[in-house]
Amino acid sequence: MPTEAKAEAVEELKRLMEDCSIAISTDYSGLDVSEISAFRTALRENGIQFKVVKNTLLRIAADQKEWPEIKELIDGPTGIAFGYGEEQIPAKVISDFISDSGIDIEVKAALIGEQSLDASQIKLLASLPGREALVSKLAGQLHGQLAGLVFTLNSPLVGAARVLNGPIAGLVTVLTGRIQQSAP
User: Fold this and answer.
1) To the nearest 10°, the Cα dihedral for 92, 94, 96, 102?
2) Containing domain of residue 69, as a range?
C-alpha cells in the first residue's frame, strides 16, 4: 500500500500532465540548490512547471493517466519541465537559460503528445521562431503572392477596358470638338 505522500506525489504528476503540450526531461545531477532554484524561477516566469520526479512514481502516474510514452523520458535522475501552450517556448527557455547562465543542465529527451524528441531535435525546436513569427511570415508571403496574382489577373482586364473605352472616348472627343466649333 503506497504512503499518503507517494499518493499525493502521483496525483501532482497527473495534474502536471493534464493539458501538457510538451514534457522535457533533464538531468539535474551535479547542480546545487541555488542553480536548481534559478532554473525553476526562469521556467516558472514563462508558465513552465519543473518537477524532480521519482521514476517509479512517474511510471505509476503515466499508467493511471494512460500516457505510457512519458515513461520514455525516465533515465536516471530526472527533472521534467512541463510546458503548456506553444511547444517551442519551453525548449527555447531551457536552451536560453543554459547558454545565458552557463549552468550545465543536460536536456535528455522530450515528448509532444506521443511524439518523442531527442536532445538534437529539442535544440532545433528551440532555434525555430515562435508560432506568431511563423504565422506573420507566412501571411506576408501569402499577401505578396496574392498581390502579384491580382496584378496578373487585373492586367488583361485593364487592357480590355481601355480597348473597349477607346471608341467611346474617341466619339466623346469628336462630339466635344463639334460642340466647340458650333459655339459662337
Assistant:
1) -160
2) 4-128
36-66 residue pLDDT tens: 999 999 999 999 999 988 989 999 999 998 8
Residues 70 and 60 in one domain: yes
Full DSSP string of 56-108: HHHHHHHHHHT-GGGGGG-SSSEEEEEE-S-THHHHHHHHHHHHHH----EEE
| Number of domains, the chain | 2
Final residue of a domain: which of 128, 159, 174?
A: 128
Domain stops at, among 108, 128, 148? 128
* Same domain flag for 49 and 139: no
Least confident of 52-61, 63-72, 132-141: 132-141
Instruction: Name 26's bridge partners.
Output: 79, 107
What per-residue confidence (pLDDT) applies to 92?
93
First to last CA, the chain: 117
The three cell numbers locating residue 167: 471608341
C-alpha cell, 178: 463639334
Distance from C-alpha of 32 to C-alpha of 36, rounded to nearest angstrom: 6
Helices (H), the chain: 4-17, 33-44, 55-65, 88-101, 119-127, 131-182
Tell me what pLDDT residue 85 has.
Answer: 87
pLDDT of amino acid 31? 86
As given in the structure block, the three cell numbers for residue 160 are 480590355
